Amino acid sequence: MNKYFFIKFKSIWFVFSSILIILGLVSMVHNTITKGQAFNLGIDFTGGTNILIAVDETEQFAQKHQAIPDEIRLKNSEAITNVIKAEGVKHVQLTIVDKHYYSVNTSVMDHDKVDAMVVDLKAKVAGLNVVEVGFIGPTMGAQLQQQAFTISLVALFLLLIYITFRFEFWAAVAAILALVHDALITLGLTSILNIPVDSAYVAAILTILGYSINDTIVIFDRIRENAKTMTEGFEIIAETSIWQTLARSVYTVCTVLIVLGSIHIFGGTSLKDFSLVLLIGVSFGCYSSIFIASPLLVMFKKWSE
Question: Rounded mean pLDDT of the chain?
Fold first, then answer.
């Protein structure tokens, strides 16, 4: 195998990434046309009502009737959803949080409607109790969207300044473009897979950016050190630096993916979406550090000469 292929075949990596980004953008446009919004926005951003419900008799009922607990929980989920929809609520999203707990997100409802719905729920689902009811207005949801966007821009700007100070301007541009690449691919797959977007999702995105930039800086640091001693062209220096840090990058990402995979499989329903976003982002964060950021830096250095 030709040892020098990360930089040499950069066009292949760029095309691959472009295809993924385009597919994601197409999904966003399709969702916007068909559903009215590009992503499956949670009530954190759209505004709505969150109801935490406990059904204490699920396991006891299952034992009494020799039924499978999962089947009982599914029947309870259907009963809860049907009662809420019968009240005229259009948007209902139910998640089984634990054996006895159900988290229900709906469009905005007033207190009287919630009270009436609780009465119906208790009458139709044995052992049901409403643990908590939370309200988020549409205005607050819009503010949270703006805050999430602002936080992301500020983070990227600060990273641009930091990398420029530590390395050089073109290294900063290449690193930021790689981060934008990671964000676009993660957002695109989020749209395709219909992953809920809420405040935890924003935290996951920022975590992904932090992980990705760390891996990129490790490679750029090795490029800078090799440039002091190697007499070859910058393309070979970059290629050699990638190979020298490749094992470290692969071992690190594999370790992280094992942990995230375990969380996704065994962590419960409430952690599945969060861990899935991190799995996607961390994987492409490692990919972009090797196949996107470094080739971009080589391109920019050639253009600036």
Answer: 83
